[in-house]
Amino acid sequence: MERRPTIIDVARAAGVSKSTVSLVLRNSPQVREETRATVREVMANIGYVYNRSAANMRSANAGLIGLVINDLRNPFFTEFATSLQMALSARGYAAVVANTDENPALQAQVVSAMIEHGVSAFIISPAYGEEASTFGPIARAGIPAMQVLRMVMPNVDVFPFAAPDYLKGSRLATEHLLATGAKRIAFVGGLEGSAVTSERMSGYLEVLARAGVEPLVISGRASRAFGREAAQRLTRDYPQVDGALCFNDLVALGMLSGCAEIGRAVGPDFKIVGFDDIEDCAQAYPPLSTVRCDVAGFGERMATTLLEWLEDGIVPPPSIRTPVELIIRGSSQPLG
Questions:
Q1: In-domain check, residue 247
Q2: 34: Cβ–Cβ under 8 A, 6 or more apart, which residues?
Q3: Tens-digit pLDDT profile for residues 7-37
Q4: Rounded to two decimals, what is the model's pTM?
């Protein structure tokens, strides 16, 4: 007996996602008329018959997007998740949000639960480790999924990756520190060996190599507590260091506190640049120079990119890089 065509057969023949076919079947206004006509023509050609009773059982979960974030305690990720969720809501979708707290086992658990509850797609800022436990079930379910801000799966043709241009950001920050008169610059924070740490460090290493300056890397957790300790450690063990590019703003804000504690003047004596431009940067004292990633705009762009994939079958490119800019404030003012 010949197998009946399925919604996956329709999607493959029409060159769109399974979710787009589902939207066409529900007469959703979110699908462009040209796409709708193509899908319906394919249905007629291959003899697909819509099982409405089965679809009705699933309809309560239609339009759900799984948003899985590694650390919602970090304001950078919170702002990203908020902007993404609001952009999805404006298009009639609901975000199911989970914080994995950098725990890969928890990440796999919440992803599995979201699949069971019928999410249409995923956007994941992943924890490190046990990647197959998270991404394997997504691939088997045929659900569109994007990696954002961090890349843990190298097969970006299946799981496209998007992030700000970390290389350019660290290059701009390091060039700025040298231009302000810093002679020895440390890179502070970030877990050693992680891809995002290596990327955020890459421009720093490139610029120092070109300038003939020896790098100094102080690895550690991307937290205020680590930044505060690092300020004291640099002053004690590396007194010649007069500038720091931090892995993120939390580390940089911690360094501001640490310098205040030991009486080291930030700006004239010791220059600090952060990375991300979270809201606290402009309110700190002195105000923190940082690499602005426009994470709110990034979240809105990721919503648009994902919905184009779902609704129109426009698969994202394997890698997307968004612009960054250096914001100069009091923590790295030039000498005299």
A1: yes
A2: none
A3: 788 888 999 887 788 788 877 777 888 888 9
A4: 0.79
Distance of alpha carbon 209 from alpha carbon 199, whole angstroms: 16
In this structure, what token pair is assigned to residue 114? 């979201």
For the record, the structure tokens of 242 come out as: 């007069």
Query: Can you give the length of the chain in residues?
Result: 336
In tens, the pLDDT along 211-261 reads 999 999 999 999 999 999 999 999 999 999 999 999 999 999 999 999 999
Strand 271-276, strand 64-69: pairing: unpaired
Do 173 and 200 lie in a common domain?
Answer: yes
Q: What is the CATH number of the domain that holds 101?
A: 3.40.50.2300
| CB-neighbour burial class of residue 69 (10 A; exposed 0-12, middle 13-18, buried 19+) | buried
Strands (E), the chain: 64-69, 94-99, 121-125, 145-148, 161-164, 185-188, 216-218, 243-246, 271-276, 289-292, 319-322, 325-327
Question: The domain containing residue 50 runs over which residues?
Answer: 7-58
* pLDDT score for 51: 55
Residues with pLDDT less than 70, the chain: 1-3, 50-62, 334-336
For residues 20 and 8, what is the distance between their CA atoms, to the nearest angstrom? 11
Residue whose structure tokens are 């924070």: 189
